[in-house]
From TrEMBL, chains A, B:
Annotated InterPro entries: Trp_synth_b-like (IPR006316), Trp_synth_b_CS (IPR006653), Trp_synth_beta/beta-like (IPR023026), TrpB-like_PALP (IPR001926), TrpB-like_PALP_sf (IPR036052)
Pathway membership: Amino-acid biosynthesis; L-tryptophan biosynthesis; L-tryptophan from chorismate: step 5/5
Protein name: tryptophan synthase
Catalytic activity: (1S,2R)-1-C-(indol-3-yl)glycerol 3-phosphate + L-serine = D-glyceraldehyde 3-phosphate + L-tryptophan + H2O
Molecular function terms, GO-annotated: L-serine hydro-lyase (adding indole, L-tryptophan-forming) activity; pyridoxal phosphate binding; tryptophan synthase activity
Top-rank EC class of the record's enzyme: lyase
Biased amino acid composition, Low complexity: 1-16
Organism listed in the record: Actinotalea ferrariae CF5-4
Record-stated family: Belongs to the TrpB family.
Gene Ontology CC terms, in alphabetical order: cytoplasm
Length: 450, 450
């Protein structure tokens, strides 16, 4: 053995931060992956009594073909967007990366139960253990992987508060790719930590609108002082991808393939509840923004209801300030403000709806995942709206009982579940809360509430 | 089953954030605790060939008696400070709280190994999964528990960057206690997130010096614009505890009972390495500030060396800017600037040493845990100093390979381990890195480096 000398630890010997040497890291490494981590993603489309309505071309209003999406997405993801296969195999390289933080914990909330005085058995499924603190990497890693397999080395995306941009930046770092993120100017200026997180992973983060795209320049010409919007950032990221034959675009929620990737959450819940000796989850509460945490958490349980006759109730918990499921119309609408994206059949407040500046930035979206909307329409899922103050009050009570500070998004599920456990749950009922992330970088929001 | 109605989720029905109802939560709840979580803390003092020198009274220079510490600490902790028993049973209530995040993961760093081109097997033990993102809650929960058992409902402490204050605030929330923290004014003003974390847990955080104590008022009278110091904050917290018969003081590092509580880290490493099929850790790298992560990580392995003849090397990785082990004297010195605390035999840069304002705030201490100092003096542990730039470069390379952004403190261990794995490790050698926490709330420091 060699002595450890200070001289060994120099900038030359110590690090080359800008590049990862060696071959592109797409091959599995032979990592042992815990058996609780699923081998396949689960696709609710296979078990639905009525098919999910197709996405429509924004010009022709005809169902989208693969060629319409090819400039933006790799073929594997385009196929996943429309497949009705029940199970899609997870590439082993993706499973090995999942194993860095998966299975995420399913924790019995003993102290919260005592604080609530409930005889229900309350569990929370905690996605905050991922490196960026939320569920977003579950799909970021999968999307980056399929792009890399097709030789695409550069991904573009938009981000609001920054959780998605950080997740995709991390995934790209792990797979030796470049990530370029357009972040809504208002968040870019006011929430610097997420941008710093992207940059630490090697991601490139631009405030949007930027002068790097035609869309951005047009927006700036119209209003040089604009603070931007998610719709504008989407336009910039899409334009950048379309103009570079070596680049693709990546979306962090809403679409069917994102729901598919997030199904690892609910599949793990099924295994972990069985390990804990529970027959089924009786009620599952998930927060609802674009729908990816909610769908990932609940779809495997809804599928079990449809196939095996279990009776799990799935409850979507959305902010009262942005109530697409409880107040919106179920119709075709665009995903962006400018109306450039495909038409999606979903619950929508209208693509010109401007949500109030609530703290749960991840829930500020005018529409909803078409698969979640469809499940609600079929009566497979319920929906409830939660006021922001009630959500924070619940988040604080949860933190003081269980130690974890939930993300502002997650507090909507926490509030609904706590109210249910306190007032309505019967003895021994199994309540599961989807904790989509932690609130460490959202402490200013808590502070404003306290 | 009842429907979930929005009306159920109101501020009245939803939360009472300031109090947790029901009896004081000291009794175990019957939680199933994973067997990897130790049942006993391990005490290196039992296996040392030479006893640890006693702490001395600052006035008489005689060894401290229990009565000297009784105004500050509960008797159980005073006994733990001097015990030479090899194992101290962990109260089941504390184990149940540990089980919320323990065992912490021991992860094989496959991608880092590939990036380094090493044939060593590199693992990291990750304490960042705790609710506050570092190892500090391991002792915070234990200290709060023993105080609560003796009926002490209020704890005071000091904090620099705020990790310790947040950890003790969380522990007090879980056990129904009050926590009052004096935070160095410079950090209080510049790093608001940790204060917000304390307040979310119900902790009370004062900037130090404050006008709430005689010590603080004297300091303010002398210099109304002072930005404070850890030594001054200690004086305020100690004064507040001594003046309130219902309060005690709590310290987050340095002392023997803190090393004891942190031994859960290294004990888990032993079990987890065996589960991974490893015969022993060949080299373990831990960051060295006050010594609690380092001691907790390495003492169980050093003890195994002493009892069973394993040959694990333990390497303390300290900042070159605050090099107590590699440059300091081994002698009796005070823990605080004013010289009011007991004299501790330790490696020290002098209690008037003012460390530069490095980003790894948790490593800015003039002294070192007496047990760590003693282990180094006996040749049971090595020490190396790491420059800040090399530490950040290593932290970024680690983040891009493994996804996790290490705390600035942890990057010192990462840098030394990476340099060793790259240049000196032999084939198949088992290298373990102590990742004391994550760097999510330290992203500004990374950003300054990038």
């Amino acid at each position: 053995m060699q002595p450890v000398a200070a001289a060994d630890i120099t900038a030359e010997g110590g690090a080359a931060p800008s590049t990862i040497p060696g071959p592109r890291p797409l091959e599995p490494l032979g990592v042992e992956v815990p058996s609780t981590v699923p081998t396949h993603w689960y696709n609710l489309a296979a078990d639905l009594p009525v098919p999910v309505p197709p996405h429509l071309h924004p010009g022709t209003h005809e169902p989208l073909g693969p060629e319409d999406l090819a400039p933006l997405f790799p073929m594997a993801l385009i196929q996943q967007e429309v497949t009705t296969e029940r199970y899609v195999e997870i590439p082993q390289t993706v499973r090995e990366i999942y194993a860095m933080w998966r299975p995420s914990p399913l924790v019995r909330a003993h102290r919260l139960e005592r604080a609530l005085g409930t005889r229900a058995r309350v569990y929370y499924k905690y996605e905050g253990v991922s490196p960026v603190g939320s569920h977003k990497p579950n799909t970021a890693v999968a999307q980056a992987y399929y792009n890399a397999v097709e030789g695409v080395m550069r991904l573009t995306t938009e981000t609001g508060a920054g959780q998605w941009g950080a997740s995709l930046s991390m995934a790209c770092a792990l797979l030796g790719m470049t990530c370029e993120v357009w972040q809504v100017r208002a968040s870019y200026d006011s929430k610097p930590y997420r941008r710093m997180q992207m940059e630490t992973y090697g991601g490139i983060c631009h405030p949007s609108p930027s002068d790097l795209t035609e869309a951005g320049r047009a927006m700036l010409a119209k209003d040089p002082d604009t603070t931007g919007s998610l719709g504008m950032a989407i336009s910039e990221a899409v334009e950048a991808a379309v103009k570079d034959p070596g680049a693709h675009y990546s979306l962090g929620s809403v679409l069917n393939h994102v729901m598919l990737h997030q199904s690892v959450i609910g599949q793990e819940v099924l295994v972990q509840l069985a390990e804990a000796g529970e027959r089924q989850a009786d009620v599952v509460f998930g927060c609802a923004g674009g729908g990816s945490n909610l769908g990932g958490l609940t779809f495997p349980l809804i599928g079990q209801n449809l196939r095996e006759g279990t009776t799990t109730r799935a409850v979507a918990c959305e902010p009262a300030a942005c109530p697409s499921l409880t107040q919106g119309e179920y119709r075709y609408d665009h995903g962006d403000v400018a109306g450039l994206t495909p038409l999606l059949k979903m619950h929508t407040l209208g693509n010109d709806f401007v949500p109030p500046a609530i703290h749960a930035g991840g829930l500020r979206y005018h529409g909803m995942s078409p698969m979640v909307s469809h499940a609600v329409e079929l009566g497979l899922m319920e929906a409830v709206a939660v006021e922001q103050d009630d959500a924070f009050a619940a988040g604080i009570e949860f933190a003081r009982a269980e130690g974890l500070i939930p993300a502002p998004e997650s507090t909507h599920a926490v509030a609904a579940a706590m109210a249910y456990a306190r007032t309505s749950a019967s003895d021994g009922e199994v309540v599961v809360i989807g904790l989509s992330g932690n609130g460490v970088l959202d402490l200013a929001a808590y502070s404003a509430y306290v």
